[in-house]
Amino acid sequence: MMDPERRKDVLLRLAKAAGQVHGIARMVNEDRYCVDVLTQISAVQKALDGAARVITRNYLERCVTDSITSGDPLIYDELMKVIDRRR
Amino acid sequence: MMDPERRKDVLLRLAKAAGQVHGIARMVNEDRYCVDVLTQISAVQKALDGAARVITRNYLERCVTDSITSGDPLIYDELMKVIDRRR
Amino acid sequence: MMDPERRKDVLLRLAKAAGQVHGIARMVNEDRYCVDVLTQISAVQKALDGAARVITRNYLERCVTDSITSGDPLIYDELMKVIDRRR
Amino acid sequence: MMDPERRKDVLLRLAKAAGQVHGIARMVNEDRYCVDVLTQISAVQKALDGAARVITRNYLERCVTDSITSGDPLIYDELMKVIDRRR
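YS: structure for the whole thing
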């Protein structure tokens, strides 16, 4: 379960990212300078990273905490995968 | 100028990325497992990386090639920024 | 505390990385092709990533587990920093 | 050919990185806190990134420029590989 504030935050970040992706498509259609398009792609990736950070924090405080408290040894493999994905 | 095949390719990748972002918002609303949401965020990041690669290749073959052929020394700073571009 | 097997593993990876760095310096002195030097730099970065993974796993199983079990709320900020750690 | 100033710069950065790797091994032997070791691994990776940037700049100004000026179409594949590796 994600708490309501975090969910709202993530949904806002995703809505912003979706808007940015549409803006990039428009730039490509208008034949804008490649470097400007690449800069915008980086910006949307940063917005997505922001959403991922909020979800990750929620994951640590809830799922990881529950698993560790109840002694589930499988959580470490899952957590390593999450960490590897972020790099 | 991006050549028409590449532009089409980039627009398809962006459309796919936009669809994925909407799908992620839906997952968040349905309170799906955090790790699955994070996996989907990675997937859309990869789709955007794919679009960036096509644009970068076009940039090298056109803008960078023109600038180097005409002896413009400023291209190297710009190119280094493109290379350093990270999420 | 890092367990002895992991410590040995990390030290081997670091020794390998150190050897690779010396090899790269030799390549630079011999004026080897830039792309080959860059490939070797990527290789040593991967060796260091490998060492970081082992240390991170140890950190999760020991420090993070102890902190969560004892209810220390500060562990989440620290863990987020470890996850965000990038080159 | 790397010009002498750049070569000197790269060799200094590599020597610094090698020293840092030895320092990290010492930290591991002294059983220092995992997070501090991870921070030092990030620092050496940044030093190596710095060396890679200088080599990349030299590569662009010399090899890439020569290949583009002489109309070698293979340079774009090589350059894309160099760019992908940095991300």
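YS: worth flagging: Chain B has three helices and no strands.
IM: good catch. Also Chain B has one domain: 4-84.
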